[in-house]
Write a structure and sequence with these properties.
single chain, 178 residues, 28% helix, two-stranded antiparallel ribbon, alpha+beta, 6 helices
């Protein structure tokens, strides 16, 4: 009797695309007045985070919460961590990234244990608009992708993550405020 090859279950990812007028996030300043600040991710992390809270019915986990950004309003056992999708994506907690900080495997494991999802976000902009693209990725995908493509320092390159994402079925929601 011939056996059929097993097929991998298709992975599903929700994607949120948010388009805003640049002037709204620039406090009314024109592009020249705002300058290169449009490239500063720290000035924009709150935008995809706030939209994810509304989209997925989550709330801020708390200023001193470890290993997570958001907590579900429906069930306080569900958490999500947000990271920008650029260059090398550091999946470890923010307490382990930045000047004078180093990778800690125990903290990455705790982050993977605590969160049910990661929301990875990127952005595109032109003279008038900025668009954030947010990927809502279940933790089991993140763990699998990290085991395949991670660098053992808490990171996966943007290119490798996008390759993994492109193999998934995407359910897209669009918010256009432009």
């Amino acid at each position: 009797m011939e056996t059929q090859p097993t097929t991998e279950v298709e992975k599903n990812i929700d994607v949120l695309e948010i388009t805003l007028l640049r002037e709204t996030i620039q406090g009314g300043l024109n592009n020249d007045e705002f300058g290169a600040n449009i490239e500063d991710w720290r000035l924009q992390h709150h935008i995809p985070t706030e939209y994810v809270k509304s989209w997925k019915n989550y709330d801020t986990a708390g200023r001193d919460s470890k290993y997570t950004d958001l907590c579900s309003k429906c069930d306080n056992r569900f958490f999500a961590e947000g990271k920008k999708l650029t260059g090398s994506v550091r999946l470890c907690p923010s307490s382990d990234t930045g000047a004078g900080r180093s990778f800690n495997q125990v903290n990455l494991d705790a982050c993977f244990e605590k969160n049910n999802h990661y929301f990875l976000y990127e952005r595109n902009y032109d003279e008038k608009k900025i668009t954030f693209i947010v990927y809502w990725i279940p933790i089991e995908y993140i763990r699998e992708w990290y085991s395949i493509s991670g660098n053992s320092k808490g990171s996966i390159t943007e290119r490798k993550l996008k390759n993994h994402i492109s193999s998934c079925k995407i359910s897209k929601t669009t918010i256009d405020k432009s």
